[in-house]
Amino acid sequence: MRAALAAALLCAACASHTPTIGMSAQHFEGQVRRAVQYEYLLYLPPSYTESDEAWPLVIFLHGSGESGADLGMVRAHGPPRLITEGRDFPFIMVAPQAPEMRPWDIDALDLLLDDIMRTHRVDPDRVYLTGLSNGGKGAWSWAIARADRFAALAPVAGYGDANRVCALGQLPVWSFHGALDDVVPAAFDTATVEALQRCNGNVRYTLYEDANHDSWTRTYANDELYTWLLSQRRAQR
Hints:
Elements: H1 2-8, E1 13-14, E2 22-32, E3 34-44, E4 55-61, H2 78-84, E5 92-97, H3 106-119, E6 122-132, H4 134-145, E7 152-156, E8 173-178, H5 186-198, E9 203-208, H6 216-221, H7 223-230
């Protein structure tokens, strides 16, 4: 039974993973409780093919407005938008698209991450998770459930389960929110951060006093975020 379950969790069918420099559309299928699939954007750094080195990986989860069946919508915000506009980053970036009207599926995301790490040169101690709005909430949830998989967490305009957030342990967290947010009130995020602080979590909190729900444009444009992310290593904890 255990062997059968393990086999069921393997990738059932995947698109070709021949490295393509730049950002490309990819497809993933797997089996966990039910058949799952994700369309996703994959970015490889310009020098990815020049050596055999392992690279950091940043996973970006979009907001509810970008869910559905049009992968181009995922380019609207965050790192995918910056890459589309011509920016190069020193890491692999994966940005899956959630099906419309469905929450992020943690088990399915785990399978996707497994597949990316199997097919690409990813440093397992430098896997970073970020997301905005509903993706920020999804990032909190995924990290709480699987804290051992990540080197750092950077949720934007989201919030986590304050009753479970201590499961993050010493995972480095930098959370961002707009004080004027009338979609996801900052109080939700503040409560999450304060709960993590009470259990001595490793957390930073940036509250933009003049920002509404869009606290992500300035966050992802800030080089300090990427410097902070890439300075974290899972092996240090």
